[in-house]
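Quick one, tokens below:
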């Protein structure tokens, strides 16, 4: 550039500032469009290099993370987006075409299920507590009484059918039934119903304990799993209609929504955050990223999958350049910048 040109440009600092602004905008637009991959790679190199020098506790503190988590729980939980997604999500899951092409066994390894079954069956304390709580439930006692009654009725009925084939035994069973009915009236059996129900529950509970202790439950559980695992996942639709699945999903969502800001739930969130900082507060961010399994190439791939289309659309309608200009213009047109260019 000739001295005359420089002299001419320097006499019009505002025009020079406008040209510099145009050049800067064009440069940044090209950085995220024509040179997108190179830009991402360069910025990732810088970010990862910097991350290796910063520890988690130096970048954020637990109190701020807890405040942000509570804000997210409150606002997102109250928003309508999740509400609107519940029923369509249930329908998508229920009618997913892939359900006809895959079995449960294709999705979940049998040995993993077997280990879960073994772990549950080993948990004697949990089993005993559950059964102890059943003994405290009047409704459970009535259920157990009805259950044992059905079993006894079934056995008696089967024996009656056999006995009626023997001459004279049908009359004997009939007489026995009348005597039992009379005895029930004479002793006012209804008043003993509660005691009978409790006794039935104790008998049922003891039988369950013995079954858990000595029964072939693992074999039975795995046989049930195999029956389901070897058929298409779509067969599970026989357990419930789409409407029933949607209802259950909605009820589960309502439970989560109404419980999200309860003291206990927030205490769990706070406890989880404290745990993370206790374990990784002194760990640098690059090491934390490595622990997630994500490398630079993975992050670059995410960017290449998600960024270019949106950026191209913004560039196509002029928004990209306009927004970049809006952010740079205050600097280039500032009195201090014009004064500098006037020197």
């Amino acid at each position: 550039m000739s001295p005359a040109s420089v002299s001419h440009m320097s006499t019009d600092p505002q025009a020079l500032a406008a040209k510099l602004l145009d050049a800067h905008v064009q440069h940044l637009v090209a950085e995220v469009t024509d040179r997108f991959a190179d830009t991402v790679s360069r910025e990732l190199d810088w970010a990862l290099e910097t991350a290796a020098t910063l520890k988690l506790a130096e970048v954020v503190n637990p109190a701020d993370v807890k405040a942000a988590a509570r804000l997210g729980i409150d606002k997102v939980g109250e928003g309508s987006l999740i509400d609107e997604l519940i029923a369509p999500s249930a329908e998508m899951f229920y009618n997913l075409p892939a359900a006809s092409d895959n079995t449960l066994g294709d999705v979940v390894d049998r040995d993993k299920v077997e280990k879960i079954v073994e772990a549950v069956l080993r948990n004697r304390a949990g089993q005993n507590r559950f059964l102890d709580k059943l003994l405290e439930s009047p409704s459970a006692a009535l259920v157990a009484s009805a259950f044992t009654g059905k079993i006894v009725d079934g056995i008696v009925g089967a024996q009656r059918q056999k006995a009626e084939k023997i001459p004279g035994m049908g009359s004997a069973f009939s007489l026995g039934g009348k005597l039992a009915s009379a005895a029930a009236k004479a002793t006012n059996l209804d008043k003993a119903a509660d005691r009978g129900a409790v006794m039935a529950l104790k008998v049922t509970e003891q039988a369950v304990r013995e079954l858990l202790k000595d029964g072939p439950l693992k074999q039975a559980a795995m046989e049930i799993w195999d029956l389901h695992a070897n058929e298409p996942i779509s067969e599970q639709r026989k357990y419930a209609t789409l409407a029933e699945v949607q209802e259950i999903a909605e009820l589960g969502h309502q439970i989560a929504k109404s419980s999200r800001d309860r003291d206990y739930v927030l205490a769990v969130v706070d406890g989880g955050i404290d745990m993370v900082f206790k374990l990784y507060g002194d760990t640098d961010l690059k090491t934390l990223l490595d622990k997630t399994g994500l490398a630079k190439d993975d992050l670059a791939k995410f960017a290449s999958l998600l960024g270019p289309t949106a950026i191209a659309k913004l560039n196509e309608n002029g928004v990209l350049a306009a927004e970049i200009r809006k952010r740079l213009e205050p600097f280039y047109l500032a009195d201090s910048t014009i004064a500098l260019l006037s020197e």
